[in-house]
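Can you give me the bound-state structure? Components:
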Amino acid sequence: MELLLSLSIGALVGSGVWLLLRPRTYQVIIGLSLLSYAVNLFIFSTGRLRVNAAPIVEKGTEIDPAAFADPVPQALVLTAIVISFATTALFLVVLLASRGLTGTDHVDGRESEK
Amino acid sequence: MITENVLLALILLPFLGALLAALFQANARNAEAWLSGAVTLFALGLAILLYPAIEGGRVVRLDLQWLPELGLNLTLRMDGFAWLFTMLIAGIGFLVVIYARYYMSPQDPVPRFYSLLLAFMGAMQGMVLSGNLVLMVVFWEATSIFSFLLIGYWHHNAAARDGARMALTVTGMGGFCLLLGVILIGHIVGSYDLDVVLRSGAEIRSHALYLPALLLILAGALTKSAQFPFHFWLPNAMAAPTPVSAYLHSATMVKAGVFLLARLWPVLAGTDAWFFIVGTAGLTTLLLGAYFAIFQQDLKGLLAYSTISHLGLITTLLSLGSPLAAVAAIFHMVNHATFKASLFMAAGIIDHEAGTRDMRKLSGLFTALPITGTLAMVASGAMAGVPLLNGFLSKEMFFAEAILEHRESLLDSVTPYLAVLAGAFAVTYSVRFIHSVFFGPKATDLPREPHEPPHWMRLPIELLVLACLLVGVIPGLTIGPYLHTAIVSVLREETPEYSLSIWHGFNLPLLMSLIALVGGILLYAALRRYLAHCEEDPPGLRGLRGQRIFERILVTVSWRWARWLEAHLGTRRLQPQLRTLVLVAIIVTAWPLFKAGLMPELSSIANLDPALVLVWAMGITCAIAAAYQAKYHRLAALILLGGAGLATCITFVWFSAPDLALTQLLVEIVTTVLILLGLRWLPERIAESDAPASLAARLRRQRDFLIALACGMGITVISYAIMTAAPLRSVGDFYLERAYSEGGGTNVVNVILVDFRGFDTLGEITVLGIVALSVFALLRRFRPAPDSIGLPEQQRIQNAYDDAHHDRSVGETAHDYLLVPSVIMQWMFPIIIMLAAYIFLRGHDLPGGGFAAGIAMAIGFLLQYLAGGTRWVEERLRILPVRWIGAGLLVSTLTGIGSWLFGYPFLTSSFRYVEIPLIGQVPVASALLFDLGVFLLVVGATVLMLIAIAHQSIRSHRVRAAETAKQEEVA
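Here's the bound-state model for the whole set.
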């Protein structure tokens, strides 16, 4: 399973980085979204992969931490998901404003000479 | 204790005065002078009262902890030497304040002047009273900055701006070097405390880092005291108002350099390096300054070069490494401050009365200014070293030291001759100052008719000249004991036997004085005609101006090199910047991993679950296809992006992260809607061209492909290595064990967010709110590109269809298309609200919580917009997202503050179970209230962003489009 997930993360990163280096703003926004999936999965995976071990504890019993998935990466990623939505929105608006001001959707605000 | 706090008062008082002074009206000259006079006089009084506490080599110390772990403390420390400087700063400061009251014209904005002057005074007091070297550097820099502001006081004047900038650049760079030097000293000694450093002289001098530390500290001291080769800033600083020149650039600030040299003299002096570097700088400055002073035409220019020369004399004395020379140096610091401040003030009066400072124009002023003239004569006598004046005493001590042998070298053997030569020059320029201004035929073409100034303007000069005379005639009864206290505090057990008496019999120093006196007068007689109308600066050396070299260096560094770097390394294009960023990231990640030999072992792949393999086969395909389609098929790319998101979501469920899956799923929805809303404003889709791409474009793509491939493979290896490594016992255990017992919730992720790390979450939701507001603000001024203003093609077709059929109204087709979904969506509204409430309430114990519930609620609103259209919704439902954001932040913060009421730290949570009829036991934790804040904010932020974008379709550009249409009609 680890192999599968790391390959998936790699594919997401590769696609994301490729799009990041493209000249159109829309490509960059899609690339950043793919990258944020990858980063979230990566951070999440540092807690190791556990099946059927959601960090939801029993009330009032002795708790064995080893029986649960690590909650810390999950807490980190939870807020990251929401924040990455917000930054996507911000970037989208900047993209639209730049397009409105410059009349082009090139990342430099003008078409390259080449 | 009171005594120690007086030290703090000495520093804070001027700064407080500066703040007050800044608040007065622009023309409040008298009020400013009263305030500043009171502050300086009070400081002077405090300093006088402190004297008994430091008499006889005692030290007053005040330690305030600042960053004790780093050895940085606000240590203030006063000994005899610091006291002497405090007296100079406060005393001359007081006189300058009186003088400035009459010097500044009613047009000058005086609050700024007095405020800066007082602030400078505070910085200077702080510098001399610092008992911690780092603190001292801080105040040292502050004096540079206030000097900059004061030189540039008349900022409408280009010379003032240039002079100020030059002074700041030179002394600022020196200050930076000094900081490095001080850090080196701190490294050697292990403490920045001045007392500790002063005790560790031998250790520092024998350390390998002694030379670098010395060079850096000298760079600081020599720039500040305008020593060769950094002397050129001082003459340019003469563009400052004369009270500033009198205070900063003769009496106090330029003394900071020699103050530091004297302060660290017991620690740093006595080595060959010290002798040669400091000695060469000092002697060169002494001679060059005096020589240049002769050939100045500006009165203040002459005094500036003379100041440089006298500072050179002090530096030379300190370089010798003999205690007796150090005594002379300290003595001369005080003497020079008194006579030079009075001379500057006299020059200011002449300028004020005659309207010019050009010595070629000034002549025969004695009849008009008899009293000022007499005072100036006495002061220049002191400057020239005439007997019975204070300057004579210290100069005599200098000559006596110059003829002694200190270190076998050429430098040492030429010192006496150069000293006499510089002495003669000093006589020449002093005589010139007096003779060309006050004697000779009465000047006829002066801009103003000179008169004696008001008595109060002359009073400071009178007092200073009186001091010159008293010290010169009866040194032992006046300055003697105080000077001794200062000397003992610097030299301690090394304090030599010395005599301040004016008569030591006929000896070699006296003969040298006589030669200098006679030689100087003869030189003036010989040069008089030439000097009466020559250009500035000595013949032959006019081209050699430090200023020009400085400017050339500045231009080279800040313009040519910067331009070159920008042209060769810089780009305004985003792609190369991002590419560089990615490449650097690859290298800095790969290099340490390669060195550590990271090569994870491939474990068996037998445990692969075919279902998940299928999910990710789809996910990976979606990701790569999205990358491929993003240019030509935006909608397809968006859908594919959603596919990859879904795979991520399933992965979260699979591997025991239900909270993440829930949130991811909901966010996925809003993100898709968000980008869909944005698509409408993008340019028309680019048609795929059949022509083969150019070679350059193909190469570029191949390179980027390789970069992307490297990133992907690299991250695969890294994440595989991490995932297969044995799990570490992390802080997660702590949370798992205490989530229920201390947080009252069983959903550990939620308890972490709203309880254990509640403060982080508060920060995060604040960021979320700020981003939402930024989006909103950016869109208020949104102007779409002209080609996106018109309706989208689909709507046009639909509207045309509606138009063509007279039984249909415009917009009906779109409405019909969505009829069934929109009914469902409208009916779903209460259900979604229930769902949001459910997700929210169960969050503490089961997957859910404020974030997920907030987004669910936002989706509920969003669906109403989709179903009914913006206008329909807003006619029925007023959502005020900004208030939701505000309420959310308020609730979260107040929950945090609430715990203060019970005496707990910010955001301490408490919980208990409450029995509610029908529903049963419900946990009520203050964390729930906090989560409510999160919920409200997330709803507000999400709705605000989405609605703001959605609103663009029914907004101003419609109006604008209508206007353009109208204009076209008119045309």
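A couple of observations. Chain A is about 65% helix and 0% strand. The radius of gyration of chain A is 19 Å.
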